[in-house]
Amino acid sequence: MKRIYLLLLMFCSLQSFGQAITHSPEIDDQTTYDSDITKVELNDQYTIIHFSYRYSKKKSQNYSLPFPLPNQREQTSTATISINPKSYLNGNGKRYNYIKSRGIPELPDAQPVYPGEEYRFTVYYERLDPGVELFNLIEGKNDPQQTLQYWNFYGVHVKNPLRKTNSPAVPAADLKLVIKGKILDAKTQKPIAGKVTYKFDKNAQKTGSRNVAANGDYSFTLSPDAYTLIGSAQGYESAEANLDLSKIKKDQQFTQNIYLNPITPKPTKEKVPILEKDKVDSSEVAPTEEAAPVKVEENKFRLDKVYFNTGESGLLAESYPQLDGLLQMMKDSPTMSIIIEGHTDNIGDPEQNKRLSLERAYNVREYLIKKGIAGKRIQFKGYGDTKPIADNETENGKKQNRRVEFVIVKP
Known about the structure:
The chain is an alpha+beta fold. 14% of the residues lie in helices and 33% in strands.
């Protein structure tokens, strides 16, 4: 009996290796409360998300496309559910694609639902990299004009620790770390041809480079150390990514995409002759300074030059200089961690405002991550219109309330 028990115990241990399960994970925000995530399971191959859904007749939203119903019972419901196979997970700046689902059809197919009944289903995505413990589930962009409404979950907290190994230590000189990724257009997300150069942070004279083909792919095999990767391409601004791999104790592979912003050509101006009386002594002209975040409290700063289109969460290019100022602050203080806070005025639906402010804060976080800041150093929150700093009765007050701020949690 003892022998059988030990074998059974060994089998159970083998089965659970590499798995992490989070029951009822904490979720920062979501687009609907009819659906919920009951469990997130991470095995060696997939990120498995378990859902429950209960249709409420009080709500007018449908979560898939309606279609003809064959019998009398089904004719009492015009609501259906399905999963978008184009959905994905996003964590630490990386995208994890949809694989398959069970218990729910894929668009354009759909399943009817009825008030009061509970529906359970499971969706499989690519496996989150170990250490990614906060992700967003993006099914699609919701439009108030469409009957099809997507399920989006923002800030899903899960257990996903870095894997430990009992393998004997490998001498640093023998370790091989593979760094691979793509050069991507920051606006279109499409790969571009160019060049990637790496430099040792402790010895800038030690360097290497790879020419990158049109597919954008690059790869280096390096030893444990701290590196700066520099991406460049014709017609684009260069960009850097920092990787501290000095404490890695085993062979591993890392993915680091580099996002380049297109160079915007400056409009040519007609040259006008300068009269002698109009000439200015260059020593009297103050030099332009990089836009810096505005300090509003001891540990709080305002990004007053970060811009978005009305009702949208995408960063405008005019925001980059000030975001680069925040980026430099975090590079100068490698231990600094922050919380990015999004705020809106009181125009529109409060729930929509909260979601918009959360998405804007998230996009600021993604910008910093793409520039080389570790995701674990940046939290994000959306407060909508709940924390105004000025009177919403005036246009100037509303403009002040539409803002992004950050709080330094750890210097």
